Amino acid sequence: MPQRGAVNPHAILSRMHRPPRFIIATPICDGHDVAAAAITRILRAQGAEAVYVGFNKSAYQIAKAASEEDATGIAISTYNGGHMSFLREVLAEQARQGIPHVPLFAGGGGTILEREVAPLLRMGVTKVYRPPLDLAEAVRDMTSLANDAAHEQPAAVGNGAAPFRALAQRLTDIEWNGAQPAGSHADGRPLVWGIGGRGGAGKSTLIDELLLRFLRSTDGRVAVLTADPTLGDRLRMVHCYSPRVFVRSVSVGPGDSTEAKTAPLVTELRAHDFDLILVESVGLGQNELGVAPVADASVFCMTPEYGSDVQLEKEALLRRADLVVMNKRDFPQAEARYARVRRFVGDNERVFLTEAKRFGDAGVTALFDEIAQRSGLLPSLPSKDERARTVGGGESPPPVPFSRRGYLGAVVDTHEAYYAEAEEEAALLASNGGASRDYQAEYDRVWQTYGFDGDLSGAVVEDGVAYRETPNGRVPIARETTTGIWTPVLGLPDRDASPRQIVRYLYTQNLPGAFPFTEGAYRFRRRDEDPIRMFAGLGMPETTNSRFHLLAAGHGAPRLSTAFDSLTLYGLDSDEPGALAKVGEGGVAVDTLDDMLRLYDGFDLSRTSVSMTINGPAPTLMAMFLAAARKRGFDWKSLRGTVQADILKEVQAQNEALFPLEPSLRLIADMTGYMMREAPGWYPLSISGYHIGEAGANPVQELAFTLANGLTYIETLRARGLPIEEFTRRFSFFFTSGSELEFNVLGRVARRVWAVALKRCYGVEGPGLALRFHSQTSGRSLQDSEPLHNLTRVALQAEHALHNNTNSLHTNSYKETYTTPQEDDVLLAMGSQQIPLVESGDFGYIENLNQGAYGLTYLEAEVERAVHRIFREIDQQGGVLPAIENEYFRTAIQEEVQRERGAMRDGRRRVVGVNYLTSRDGARPRGELVHIPMKAKRSQAARTRAFKREHAAEGEAALERLQAAAVSDANVFEALLDAVEHATVGQVTHALWEVWGRFRPSM
Do residues 474 and 336 both lie within one domain? Predict the structure, then answer.
């Protein structure tokens, strides 16, 4: 048997005679995977092999993958800061894994500064790519450099820290040079299990869950060989980074024989010290056996969507397999289909019904027990009590009942019927044919209350405002400009408008604050409170607290918007191993209840609106905020604000999900139900399109995906028994305000689509009909080249948001492509919305200045039709949740990213300072960049460790109660409120990972 760590004399030769293979990843606590995914696609298109291991990956995970895959290059896409320390750690980990020679490439837009390139190269990074270099050019350069390195550099071999390194090199030699594999173990072990089935059956997820059970039940070692043309299976395996797991990807193209490619590799794996070998086969066609001939035993993985029983006769592997798995138990009629397959197979003991995506699934556990028994592993399986604690709460109904999966199609049908009804009513009114309502009388009442035709007689004039006395009190009808012109407060169609115009106005426009809320959620803008809500977060809680006080100065009712650092966003603490460089970068570090108290110190929380952009661990931070408010003596019913707990957009675009989707939705429901009772002034769910747009979606996609998500939350919360009238009034939304034409009407269309859907589909009548949203200028549109142009971009986008009657607004700093804004930068960004609001007449006189404009009205209708088309596409997938599983959203966003990159390359889209009107003197303005001192980071980590020591006993007990609630029917958010008194954010996350499992990414 070959010795671990033996020299492989053919290593250099093997690297010269194969396609280059790259490991692609984003760093720990960084979910910006748009560029990484694009690089993966370009590499594959250029004939290279690309193994995308995903986002939020540690240096150890990246280097381990590169070693096992025997990669010829590693590419890191970093956008969250801390890259100097992280890349240094990757290089160190490469050395530990026996691959110091493998070229390391890095890029990250403007995040990596020009002055940092030389130190990175001296450190050992092979090449750093910065704007304006195109990704395709960067990939060609990477491939060339990697090929050169493969020819020139000696290939290191395994050592004690990287026991699988020599094996990885040996597999390369066998695969590409025809080297002969070693002989097998004399005793016939380990047993090789082939796992095959059609694409989309969930084989990778199933294998990952088997790995988890293997690691928990034995102290042995397992090898996984995945045969896939995309080399994408590793991405789904979150448990493959144990030192006891070896994973190797094999590219099997359309013309390749799976058996021929994998057989010699399996023979080699048999000769090494593994207790179990799993071989995953590419999706099979009928009468194909895949890896079954090279395995000792086989598992056929299928789903209930196999068609008629006649199709079962055609599945060669189904007849031959030792075990059969029907995965996706949540599919309707799965139990009946399972019974039919058992009858067909004729041996009930070898057919298993599973839902592999559900952590701790009992069917997967039964499958593993059977594999373990047949493999002679005889594991010390967990006790029944332990197993009950780790099944993720056992069986539960799907978040959206199957009978409701057509909800998006029903919404489109309702909208189309609504507009058809409007035209019918207009025709009836025009012909005196008896419309269902007295539209003329309604419109007359609107005019009698708010109309202004220049006549001030009968009005009360005070301080340049004319008021009309009405039965419901005094209302403003006109304002005087600085030049003495009196303008209406609310612009209306002509008083003698035609019947058709009147009906169309009432159906599609109406007054601000009136159904269908096209122009605004409220009748008038608040004159005592600007919509300014600036996003801030920097370093330690005390630092951010000072920034908050600066931003709130001069505002009677402060509006705070909190940005958390990437560790907090991923539910980790500041003392997380290997992540010290990330502490306080890009946001504030909040680990404990004490940190939350420091963060908002000095603010009267009963008069302050607080927004927290936190996503994955949102319920944990919400519980901390409530606990902090209680410690400071505030009544929860006096609190107001919002928390961005939108998990759907995380799995669609932003990648900050912590747990699988179903328990995440349950936690949101528990938090929403609790907050409705105890903190009714709070919005517990902010549904975000902004991050969908930042991932690359176009304006229409952002709008459609976000509204679809909102409707999905309605379905999930209603299915859990929450009253729709109550929870919809506590929804808020978050949209981009960009430069594209469609952003002129995005808010208008959003409000109308939402209002009509809720009223006509769901019977809502209360405040929930009025969609309220926060806006932020487009971060994606900011350019690192000639960044002063960003000032103009932000000002233009702020105007778009204000004309859409946004309820609050954040304007970005022009420097945000390459550094955290300093105080002067933030004040300058605030000015881009303060100047239009205060100095411009656009927002000081006529509340609905643009409503009814011909061009905007046409654009509204076209954007709404485009939203309906996307709703239909999602509906064909079975709704948002199945569309997530089918990768509909990520695919659509990636296609849009590629389209936009192509338009930039060929000049169809022009960007000043980038590919149009560029200047040689486009350097950044002078000024120091913001850096968080390492001393402050260490201090924060030390405070967190001290908190853990001080609360060790109480924290352990509280976390046990939290886990017990998580696997029962109790309200988990109530248990969170208890836990955060004595446990950190990271401790809570790890406790829930133990019983719910981790989020499993896909591509």
Answer: no
